[in-house]
Amino acid sequence: MKNDFGLERFAKLVIKQDDLRTLYFRAFAFLLDFFDADKLYFFKFSKRKQCFDPKAALNRDILEEVVRGDYESFNIEEAFEKEFNLNFRAFGSSCNDIVRSLARLIVDNHIKIIKADSLKSVRLKSVWKRLKLRDEAFYVPLFSLDEMVGFILFDKPIDYDSSKAYFDLLGCAIGRLFLLKNIDNLSNLLATKSDEDKRKQKLYQIGKTAVVMAHEMKNSLIGILGLFNRLKAYVNDDDKAQRYYHIIESQLKKLYNFTFDLNRFSKIDDVKDIKEIEIADIIDNSIEMASSFYKDVNFSVSIGKNAAIVKADRSHLEQIFLNLFKNSIEAAGNRPVKIDVTVRKEGDFVVIRVTDNSGGVDEETLKNMMQPFFTTKSYGTGLGLAIVKGIVDSYNGSLSFRNVKGGLECIIKLPQKNNTGGSDGRKEKNYGC
Amino acid sequence: MAEKKKIMVVDDEDAIRLLYEEEFSDEGYVVVACANAQEALEKFEKEKPDLVILDIAMPGMSGLDVLGKIKEKSPNTPVIMSTAYSHYKNDFYTHVADAYIVKSPDLGELKDKVKELLG
């Protein structure tokens, strides 16, 4: 029976749904049927609690009508309330903690499906028992717009690749459902205590604003720049007309590029594609990119033998190096630029030092240079180092600057064991902090 | 001479609608421009376009909802989803569309895709 449910049929079925909750339950029903499972558990990410909440378990009896019927006569509200009240109120926060730890494992290592018996947590085993699951339970994370919104637990192995589209659908439905619900609670989300939390809160708000600004600006500028290109044919040879045209063109392009910076800044904590990568490759690429914009830069690179391979998202490291190189080069002005890069393994950290001959910075700049929108340059966006800081923080690393003889040294420490966010589950949703 | 193909453009940005109208008219297409989802659904019935270029983020009903309604009425009319950012690419709904384009001031990729879908 399950083979009759092709993706196309599923897509047609789903696209007709205006009600997201209906969509969500139908997707569940479909999965239950597709995998011939008896029960599916779904854990949703709670932005307020910053952890994963068990939210619904749907079993075959409940969904039978939906699966076997024409997907038209199912009472969603009733099924949801019944299952939720009966099965899940009891688990409370201890379960959340374990689920949260588990979620971090998935996020940190980018494991799509985890076998329960490969996890060492003793507490996890106890939850297993309470959920009456066999040891080899499998998890499938659900994503919506690149954010993990929850995951489903299966009591048997499944073929993730061949059914990814269904999970995409479910992630999308849940993401939208929760987005609608959470918008009203945004102020609760940001209620925090410590200074660090306040800093994060501020950056979170800036990040949220940046996303909206970047999107709106980019959208408008695409049309304006496109029409502006067409205008070129109508601009006459008059010197003034030509000059005005070029000034406006370069300013529009600057604004357009700014939207990309804003977008990068706001996307730092998105799901990472962490792999073991050769740092020499990354540095070479970044030097090549920097050299295409700036001439006459003298780079020297030294990589410790045991630091040759690092665990990180390639695009993040390239962004770090490129932003640091750009900063050093622009700070040097017209002087010849020299940039030294060293990478060493120190304990559980990979330590990257980028030193330049820019002459260093004053105390006030040293204090503020990592703040978003802080800039000493008339043409800067003030986001370059904030992006670097955001990336390094999202790996639970550290970033510092100090004046050295004739220049500035940047020191980045990236943990190489559990290198993305520790166990508090909080990092993944912050914007650029 | 073969009849000109008709393209429907749905975007809430005035500048983008004008840009697409001009560029695709230059390419020899008839262009129908709509500023919102409601207008798009009305004009789709009346104008029966050969292809639709649909912005995703619009006030009110989104492009994804319009996509659903268009595909329900006319499953064989090609629809190109167009948006300023690539993150909607992972949205399951866009799998139902025939193509997905990240908006840019350079319309090269979009024009190629239109040509390809209209054969």
Number of domains of chain A: 3
The average pLDDT score of chain A comes to 65
Count of beta strands of chain B = 5
Number of strands of chain A: 11
End-to-end distance of chain B, in Å? 17 Å
Assign the CATH superfamily of the largest domain in chain A: GAF domain
Helix content of chain A: 40-55%
3D architecture notes:
The complex is a heterodimer of chains A (433) and B (119). Chain A is of the alpha+beta class and 433 residues long. Chain A is built from 14 helices and eleven strands. In chain A, helix 2 packs across helix 3 (60-68), helix 9 (195-231) runs antiparallel to helix 10 (239-266) and helix 11 packs across helix 12. Chain A is globular. Chain B is α/β, with parallel strands linked by helices and 119 residues long. Chain B has a single domain (6-114), classed as Rossmann fold (3-Layer(aba) Sandwich), CATH 3.40.50. Helices cover 38% and strands 20% of the residues of chain B. Chain B contains four helices and five strands. Chain B has helices spanning 14-26, 37-47, 63-73, 108-117; strands at 6-10, 30-34, 51-55, 79-83, 99-102. In chain B, strand 1, helix 1 and strand 2 form a beta-alpha-beta unit. In chain B, helix 2 (37-47) runs parallel beside helix 3 (63-73). The radius of gyration of chain B is 13 Å and the shape is globular. The model of chain B has no long low-confidence stretch (mean pLDDT 87). Chain A binds chain B through residues 7, 11-12, 14-16, 18, 143-146, 165, 168-169, 171-173, 215, 218-230, 256, 263, and chain B through 13-19, 22-23, 57, 65, 67-68, 71-72, 84-85, 87-88, 90-93, 95-96, 103-107.
